[in-house]
Write a structure and sequence with these properties.
Blueprint (H helix, E strand, L loop, with lengths): L10 E4 L2 H14 L1 E6 L4 E4 L18 H8 L4 E5 L2 E4 L5 H8 L11 H12 L5 E7 L2 E7 L10 H15 L4 E8 L3 E6 L4 H14 L3 H6 L1 E8 L7 E8 L5 E9 L7 H25 L3 E2 L2 H11 L4 H15 L4 E2 H17 L4 H12 L18
Antiparallel strand pairs: 1-8, 2-6, 3-4, 4-5, 6-7, 8-9, 9-10, 10-11, 11-12, 13-14
Helix pairs in contact: 1-5, 3-4, 5-8, 6-8, 8-11, 9-10, 9-11, 10-11, 11-12
Length: about 375
């Protein structure tokens, strides 16, 4: 598996915290963060006709396999401080950021024309770039200004989070971890705090004849971060025990900017632990909101949140089959929305996209449900 990390499609999972921490400690040691002027960056197309097609044209340690994998994906190479590296797809957006360009037409250009456009624009800027070289490729091209991008090492964030969890939630259990070239995430269960955090909520579910559902639920938290600019370092509250994790409430997050440090992440964790109880209260509140047209409400919410169409329509169909046309609670709709995530996983959607949709669904906890509970149907 170590030899496959250069692949853009590479991902790995972890069943224990020590294995995940060890992985990211080794990754931190092997990764290269290097600075150079933006106008010193130079992009070239990478295909079989390229003079760079041989690994001899690249920086030391770049394998032939990494070069050919890049040809099948983004198809670009970049010169950084005099040496060429293949460019990973995760670096594309940040590279456009350094060139101060964007648009849907760019990916449609031939690779030589795209490289020419990038080079012409990169030459206009003298500010520094902060380049991440990881697993034989350039994975990101951030701004070199610490106010624009601050490095938050994943291994240090993990150690800080575990320390805080042990102090606030003794008995916490690492459930699973995930990492690919664009995003890293991990989940912990908090079994010893179930009564403290879920007591009243579980009793309300049981009183409504849903004791089996209440018995399975366990509080948990998810950690998510990225070195490639797609996510801040954040932690969110979860309900675990069902088919999929249920994201509740808002996240606490530290952006990779404004001179952020791991110490800021540590301080913010305390506020998340305080907010956990408030998130559970919002879940309780959904049990008391009755909707006359729950299928219509669910459809409008899916449209409002721009949830992926195919997985959303399947979730709506399943909910309608289960409930018919009768009334239901906002809690019923919220739980039905979780099927969108399950359907996305079945379609093998990228983990980064699933996490984003999960956060969007959590926003419904603070919505005005009556606004969506209308007799008139809506197309999606």
């Amino acid at each position: 598996m170590q030899q496959q990390r250069f692949q853009d499609c590479y991902s790995t999972t972890f069943s224990s915290y020590p294995s995940m921490l060890s992985y990211h400690e080794m990754q931190s040691q092997a990764s290269l963060w290097t600075r150079c002027p933006v106008n010193d960056l130079y992009v070239e197309p990478l295909d079989l006709a390229s003079s760079l097609a041989s690994e001899d044209g690249f920086a030391p340690g770049i394998s032939k396999e990494a070069v050919y994998d890049t040809m099948e994906n983004l198809g670009l190479a970049i010169r950084v401080n005099g040496a060429y590296y293949p460019v990973r797809e995760t670096a594309y957006r940040s590279l456009l950021g350094r060139a101060k360009i964007g648009g849907t037409a760019l990916p449609k250009l031939e690779k030589q024309k795209l490289a020419d456009v990038l080079n012409n624009c990169l030459q206009l800027f003298k500010r520094e770039a902060l380049v991440l070289v990881r697993d034989e490729k350039v994975s990101a091209v951030h701004s070199g200004d610490d106010a624009d991008y601050s490095v938050l090492p994943i291994d240090e964030l993990l150690k800080t989070l575990q320390m805080k969890l042990d102090a606030r939630f003794p008995g916490n259990v690492f459930k699973e971890g995930y990492s690919d070239h664009s995003v890293t995430s991990a989940m912990w269960e908090l079994p010893d705090q179930k009564k403290e955090l879920l007591g009243t909520y579980a009793k309300m579910l049981s009183a409504m004849g849903r004791s089996a559902e209440a018995d399975k639920m366990v509080p948990g938290i998810r950690f998510t971060t990225s070195d490639t600019g797609i996510a801040s370092a954040k932690v969110s509250a979860l309900l675990l025990g069902g088919a999929s994790p249920i994201h509740i409430g808002s996240c606490v997050a530290v952006d990779h900017r404004n001179h952020s440090r791991v110490e800021k992440f540590e301080k913010l964790l305390d506020s998340l632990f305080v907010q956990f109880g408030d998130s559970i209260k919002r879940m309780q509140g959904l049990l008391q909101i009755w909707l006359n047209y729950p299928v219509n409400a669910m459809t409008r919410i899916c449209k409002k949140l721009c949830l992926p169409k195919k997985p959303a329509l399947e979730a709506i169909r399943m909910f309608e089959d289960a409930t018919g046309k009768g009334p239901a609670t906002a809690h019923d709709v919220f739980m039905a929305l979780q099927e969108v995530l399950f359907n996305m996983k079945a379609e093998k959607a990228p983990q980064s996209k699933i996490l984003l949709v999960e956060e969007n669904i959590a926003r419904t906890l603070s919505m005005d449900w009556e606004e969506y509970d209308l007799a008139k149907g809506v197309d999606y």
